[in-house]
């Protein structure tokens, strides 16, 4: 998606440790008209899929998933990274390691919000090593639901998480794939 690549080059910042900061428009401060274009693009890419739920993980993917869900006319459900008092009933659980936070989370999703008849599109802001995505896929599989694919805004192609998932036959649609990052420069996969 050329619009996204241009925005990353204009407003993104490369930090040590292969961190790409896009917090001025995507995952801290959110440029809603811009994210609306992202939602339209995911709808175009998954137009033939019978999506009934959008699934994401707390927290950065939630806003993007909500915009995408508007184009599919379906609910968003998100996996929580912490147990809270308002969670009740049976839960799907898995462990997910965060690349950015260098932490392992117990990820929780109420069973009442994901059923075997659901056709799920996973949406997230970043894909690096693929740990979060694999955790969400595990929840979809455990629920007996059908995974239609994953829509990723920015994939770090040099970390190979997306490649590993594609090799397993999972449809991964990334709007921008970063091939390399160093100091203050980055290159995109064509």
TrEMBL record:
Record text on subunit structure and interactions: Homodimer.
InterPro entries reported in the protein's UniProt record: PRTase-like, PRTase_dom, Pur/Pyrimidine_PRTase, Xanthine_PRibTrfase
Name of the protein described by the UniProt record: Xanthine phosphoribosyltransferase
Annotated GO biological process: purine ribonucleoside salvage; xanthine metabolic process; XMP salvage
One MF term in the entry's GO annotations: xanthine phosphoribosyltransferase activity
GO cellular component: cytoplasm
Catalysis performed (reactions): XMP + diphosphate = xanthine + 5-phospho-alpha-D-ribose 1-diphosphate
Protein family according to the UniProt entry: Belongs to the purine/pyrimidine phosphoribosyltransferase family. Xpt subfamily.
UniProt entry tagged with the keyword Transferase: yes
Domain of life: Bacteria
Chief location category: cytoplasm
Subcellular location(s) per record: Cytoplasm
Pathway noted in the entry: Purine metabolism; XMP biosynthesis via salvage pathway; XMP from xanthine: step 1/1
Organism listed in the record: Blautia pseudococcoides
Annotated Gene3D superfamilies: 3.40.50.2020
Sequence positions that bind xanthine: 20, 27, 156
Coiled coil: none
Region forming the signal peptide: none
EC assignment: 2.4.2.22
Function in brief: Converts the preformed base xanthine, a product of nucleic acid breakdown, to xanthosine 5'-monophosphate (XMP), so it can be reused for RNA or DNA synthesis.
